[in-house]
User: Which sequence fits this backbone?
């Protein structure tokens, strides 16, 4: 094929791909293929998984667990707000604040311990937002708050929302 | 006593007039973080283990009572400024005062709170 033929063919194909029906079909195909591949990108999957963990009461990453130190009651037959059967909720506890990623507000969280049975042993979690050294006993999550019950035996910890906090910890 | 009552009423009126809501919200939030864990939402405490807060207003009526209150470890170590602690204690005193009682205490100021908090040996008086 002569050089002139090849140049003519290339110019015609280039023009055809940018114009009219072939152009539209080509761009639509690229859009569909690209759009279908988007959820497969690792960043998109990572963000979705992180959000799922922050919403799952059985995960340490659950947003209310930002200052928990112990076994998560939701993994022990209870829930974020209720003790497992056969245990007793301590009337005394420590209270912290956690930011809810869903609305960006800070909430007061009460980490009432459930007591009366041995260690649950599942879903241990130790996060310490706003936690103070043990010589500030009312502000420390290292305390065995089961001291307020009849048995003193620790089983797991709940994470109960008390309301909206006026500000995030640490206080000014 | 009458002057103290007038002070409390004046403080309450002033707070009501100049937008007390943010201060009250802050005090309620501070109560949750600093006190509620042991004393409970109603300030009743736990029988035989954690004292009730119903008597805070009465403690604030005398200088000895004020010194004693500020010597309580949880009060002295509260993780808030002297100014916020003064507001918090007044909030606790009024909120948990026995029904029918008319608290009559002079308002606490940040200077007094800071001085009493720093007072050495005051915790010994609790024993």
Assistant:
């Amino acid at each position: 094929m002569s050089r002139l033929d090849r140049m003519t063919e290339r110019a015609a194909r280039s023009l055809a791909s940018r114009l009219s029906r072939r152009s539209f079909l080509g761009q639509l195909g690229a859009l569909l293929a690209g759009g279908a591949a988007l959820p497969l990108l690792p960043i998109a999957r990572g963000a979705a998984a992180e959000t799922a963990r922050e919403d799952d009461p059985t995960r340490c990453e659950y947003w209310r667990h930002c200052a928990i130190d112990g076994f998560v009651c939701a993994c022990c037959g209870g829930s974020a707000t209720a003790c497992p059967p056969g245990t007793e909720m301590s009337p005394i506890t420590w209270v912290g604040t956690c930011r809810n990623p869903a609305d960006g507000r800070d909430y007061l969280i009460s980490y009432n311990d459930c007591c009366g049975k041995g260690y649950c042993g599942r879903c241990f979690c130790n996060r310490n937002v706003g936690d103070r050294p043990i010589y500030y006993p009312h502000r420390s999550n290292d305390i065995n708050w089961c001291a307020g019950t009849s048995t003193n035996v620790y089983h797991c910890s709940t994470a109960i929302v008390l309301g909206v906090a006026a500000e995030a910890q640490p206080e000014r | 006593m009458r002057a103290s009552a007038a002070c409390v009423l004046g403080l309450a009126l002033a707070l009501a007039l100049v937008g007390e809501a943010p201060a009250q919200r802050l005090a309620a939030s501070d109560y949750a973080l600093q006190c509620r864990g042991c004393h409970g939402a109603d300030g009743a405490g736990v029988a035989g283990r954690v004292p009730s807060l119903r008597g805070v207003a009465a403690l604030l009526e005398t200088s000895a009572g004020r010194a004693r209150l500020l010597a309580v470890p949880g009060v002295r170590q509260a993780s808030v400024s002297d100014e916020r602690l003064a507001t918090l204690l007044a909030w606790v005193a009024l909120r948990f005062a026995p029904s029918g009682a008319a608290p009559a205490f002079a308002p606490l100021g940040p200077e007094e709170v800071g001085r009493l908090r720093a007072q050495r040996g005051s915790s010994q008086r609790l024993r």
About this structure: Chain A has three helices and eight strands. The first strand of chain A starts at residue 69 and ends at 71. The first helix of chain A runs from residue 3 to 18. Helices of chain A lie at 3-18, 20-37, 42-54.
